[in-house]
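Internal tracking record. Fields below are filled automatically when a chain is submitted to the structure queue. Please do not edit lines marked as system-generated. If the sequence contains nonstandard residues, flag them in the REMARKS field before resubmitting.
Queue: standard
Priority: normal
Entity type: single polypeptide chain
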Amino acid sequence: MNEEKLIDARLSLSALFKARREELNLTQQELADLCGFNRATIIRWEAGEFWPGMKQYLIICDKLGLTNKIISE
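SYSTEM-GENERATED OUTPUT FOLLOWS
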């Protein structure tokens, strides 16, 4: 997989996280608190500047209600 595809994947995932957070009417701070992260981490994820580790990825998916969708597909 080349770097361009990784960047595209990161931006798609970032957009998914942000859209879902907004759909749930959560602020970045509220999501950060739910996940046990700081707000700067959420900001960086949503900007596509940070790629979460697997544990962080699963935590945010769980808090956004995406876990069953991700695992079952």
